[in-house]
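Working notes for the structural subgroup meeting. M.R. asked for a predicted model of this chain before we commit to crystallization trials. I am recording the input and output together here so anyone reviewing the notebook later can reproduce the run.

Input as submitted:
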Amino acid sequence: MIKAIIIDDEQHCLDRLRKLLVSFFYEEVELVGCYLDVVEAREALSLVKPDLVFLDIEMEGLTGFDFLKSLKEVDFHVVFTTAHNKYAIDAFKLSAINYLLKPIDVDDLKDTFKRIEKIESKSQSNLSLDALFQNLGTLNSQNKKIAIPTISGLCFVNLQDILRCQSDVNYTIIHKKDKSSLTVAKTLKDFESLLKDYHFFRVHNSHLINLNYIKNYNKGKGGYVTLEDGTEIEVSTRRKDDFIKCITSL
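Returned structure, recorded in token form:
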């Protein structure tokens, strides 16, 4: 059984999550503490030693990120809870961090527990947190990291190391600058959704490219781009206008 605590400085939010856990997850989760105050929560961590912490992002005078950074070690899984903060949510998605949007829904909570079950170890969670803090701490999109699921766990790759992503039916092949590649059991659409705000553009049904590595664009019906490694990739006719707008605005 998972030992869990909740840290949230809003009583109604804390009560809602507590009710959901007690009502629907009593066979899976032992709720061993609920804290409105971060000082009390910090003291309780060493005594209770939870497996899982539900942590509000925006608390009075302190963020959930600051709270974690203040700890000597994070030896538990973390699920962030938030009512907003799009920038943080984008960083969560890149870093493969679990989060719940308020008001919390029981189905979202079920999905969260399923994802936690798949995490190999707490050290893997720590790697995700490290990537999250890096992503939150840099404004340069290419210095951010993406968590890529592999057979052996998560692989964290800097966006600046990715040249292009290539569709292979229900898989995606990630081609890196060092000429190595990763095959991932996710569709290209998944990566397009994750990377569209980080200077990546889907020029064709089969290719998502890093715009920072375009060497030149050759006009034609749709035309084609040449990347810095010499790879030539067709630009589909229906994506051409949006592509040109995108590269001229860089």
